[in-house]
Amino acid sequence: MFSDFDAIKVGDARTLTRTIGEADVRRFVEMTGDDNPLHVDRAYAEATSFKDIVVHGMLGASFISTVIGTQLPGPGALWVAQSLEFLLPVRLGDTLQVSCTVTARHARDRLLELDTTIINQAGQTVLSGTGKVKVLEPRAAQPGAADPGRRRVALVTGGGGGIGRAICQRLAADGMEVVVAWHGRADRADAVVAAIQALDGPARAVAIQADLATADGAASLARAAAQAFGPVDVLVNNASPAIGAKAFADLRWDHVQAHLDVQVKAAVLLAQACLPAMIERRYGRIVNITSQVTEGAPTPTWTAYAMAKSALATFSRYLAAEVGPSGVTVNCVAPGMTETALIGDIPEKAQLIAARQTPMRRLAAPTDIASAVAHLASAEAGFITGHTLSVNGGMVMR
Asked: How many angstroms separate the CA atoms of 316 and 314, rounded?
């Protein structure tokens, strides 16, 4: 059993009362070897300015450990630092009131700061100080799992496009309920839903329109997804505007902002909307679709697109570090040039050259990307997080 760190508040206090007798001093001497005659020889002590035996200071202070280990915070407490000021001597027969009070708490490190005091039966403070205590937690807290009574729910943004369509169909084939999020082309999203409904087995999907460039659009999408099938287990942030190649001289900030809004802001807002339920169940998968452009040689004129993809990749790593203890993984899939409408403005010759420069001698197919997403969304990938899985046929190697 471990103490509940979240239940401990600033101002919480616990007190222990203990009367010090000769037997306590004798046991302390036996344990520590500290047989200083000031503590054990009355004749010697009477010859000093103290005029009587003085109880070991650390004997009294040791009861602070008793309070920490048994009361505040209790089981699983690790006393890591202490400052002490011994103000008055403790005598045999004194009754000590040992108190610890929480003065600050640091949730990230599970650390408490304590005010520690010892008062004798006369109301005099004989010891004061401050301490720090770490509240331990089970070393191998295991992630949860999706409710076996319901199928996992996947939300895929940009679900009507080439890569999005392949991801939706693959996750549905893997047994998930799929929310196909779309913005501009209802016919493509409806076609994806129809293809999923035609799969063998109890495949279910729904298409939901959302403007992911706005905070309201992201929030309403998350609510609609939960209303359709229940809390989201797998979030795939795949939506992206067209690359919109622009020479820097022609690049306006609104070109950059359009990519940041759809690729980064939407990913942040959707993660914020979906994470509470994932954390509660200690299970969740977030997969962000980035790009080879963040890893290989820069492609001139793709500045806005690449800036957003780089920001999305950085966001993914930082989020992975923060939510990892909750059993939620956050990863990226970075496709190379893929045969979708997104590369429609790239000359065919350039596409052929790219294929020839790839060790696999072809461009990526949408199903290649979908397979990578499916792996990171699976239960088997529960110990992979903060990772970017490159799917580029070896065009870029690290």
From this structure: 5
Cis omega before residue 143 (within 30°)? no
> Can you tell me the distance from the alpha carbon of 37 to that of 48, in angstroms, rounded to the nearest whole number?
11
Structure tokens at 48: 């000093």
Q: What angle do CA 236, 241, 243 make, to 5 degrees?
A: 115
SS3 154: strand
Q: Which helix (H) or strand (E) holds 165?
A: helix 162-173
> What gap in Å lies between CA 282 and CA 379, rounded to an integer?
12
Mean pLDDT of the chain: 91
Rounded to 5, what percent of the chain is helix, strand, coil?
40, 20, 35
d(CA 6, CA 284): 22
Query: What are the tens digits of pLDDT across the range 89-101?
Result: 999 999 999 999 9
- Judge contact between 205 and 193, C-beta under 8 A: yes
Domain 5-135 class, CATH top level: alpha beta
- Is the pTM above the cut of 0.70? no
For residue 335, the tally of other CB atoms under 10 A from its CB is 25
pLDDT in tens, 310-351: 999 999 999 999 999 999 999 999 998 777 766 666 777 777
Of the CA atoms within 13 Å of residue 285, those in its CB half-sphere come to: 28
Q: Which residues contact 377 (CB under 8 A, 6 or more apart)?
A: 154, 171, 174, 234, 236, 285, 287
The number of angstroms, rounded, from the C-alpha of 83 to the middle of its chain's C-alpha atoms is: 33
Q: Is 310 helix (H, G, I), strand (E, B) or coil?
A: helix
Q: Which residues are catalytic?
A: 305
Asked if 40 and 46 count as a contact pair (C-beta separation under 8 A), the reply is no
Q: From edge to edge, which strands make up the β-sheet containing 284-289?
A: 205-209, 177-182, 153-156, 234-237, 284-289, 328-335, 388-391
Q: Give the start-to-end residue ranges of the domains of the chain.
A: 5-135, 153-391
Q: Looking at the domain 153-391, which fold is it?
A: Rossmann fold (3.40.50)
Burial grade of 391 (CB within 10 A; 0-12, 13-18, 19 or more): buried
User: Which residues neighbour 37 within 8 Å (Cβ) at sequence distance 6 or greater?
Assistant: 44, 45
